[in-house]
Amino acid sequence: MTLPFFPPDLFDGERDALLDIVENIGSAPEQKFILGAHTARFEEVIRDSVGAADAIACGSGTAALSLVLRAMDVGPGDEVIVPAFGCAPLAAAPAMLGAVPVFADVDPWTMVADPAEIERLISPRTKVIMPAHMFSVMADMPAIRAIADDAGVRLLEDSAVAQGGVLGGTPAGMWGDAGVYSFVQVKTFGMPGEGGMVVTADPGLGAVVRMLRNHGQDGRTRFVHHRIGYNSRFDEIMAAFQLHRFATLPQRLERRARIGEYYTERFSELAGCGVLAPPPVSDGRCYYVYSLLAERRDALRDHLAAQGIGSHVYYPAALPRQPAFAPYASGGSWPAADLAARRTLAIPIYPHLTDAQVEHIADAVCRFAKES
Known about the structure:
By secondary structure, the chain is an alpha/beta fold. The chain is built from 12 helices and 12 strands.
């Protein structure tokens, strides 16, 4: 049995639909391949599904972060508080605008930003707090929202990996002044290309993001540029494909949740064996990635590989330890983020897995932990 970490054919069974979409758009009289009717409809569907005032499709989840920060007038001299553990765009997006990413240490178990650390780092220069949901756990958004409100700063929710997650009755992406989603192929609502989305309850903020994604144009008069913007537009073929896939998103999310809950139940017996599963919280789950914390991570990875099971390390170094962000990390200490970087190992959780395959993966992890 060979089980790769990434599904071998992510869009198996949907090729005919994709080919039909390509043919239909290619033969349409208007020949519009970006920001057309399909993109507008896709934005409406996402907007309505989370209760946003506006949803703006753009070139990627990374671009979505940059667009919102620009729309929030983040620039030189500003500080943006970001988690010390996560993907590079968390720090790169503010840094590319001349702002300073300020790294908040994470909770050592959930690996999401610790609200107490965020509150400690608030300064007169703080412009935005940008928490990120990680793996299968959402950040403590009620606490972080309260901190942002008390400090009078903006809150940008990096919900790129958490589409479909709900915390306290509020969908991921809707706790902040704005939230972002990513549609890169391995995400919970992935597609065969790059793409992202900004959602917001603030129509004014949404209007600025909408201009910035298309060279600063307002969509009414072409070649009139109200702001200096980006080329971060959405592909019509991908929008049509996402509309096709949206109908089955609940089933795919449910399958991920069933697998994740099974893993958590099986791994609860490993206390004291050097392998920890994510905490068994009842709210705020999204099951994008199921990541273990293993004291002997490399040995566990070798053991799984010998059983034909793929795994993946997210992420091998905390953000302040990355060479690109060294200028922002002088004198800091992030022990939980460093520990997470040494111990995290993600195991397969995609919906394509059969029950027998999921059991095989869980058996292999448990066998390693108990025999080590």
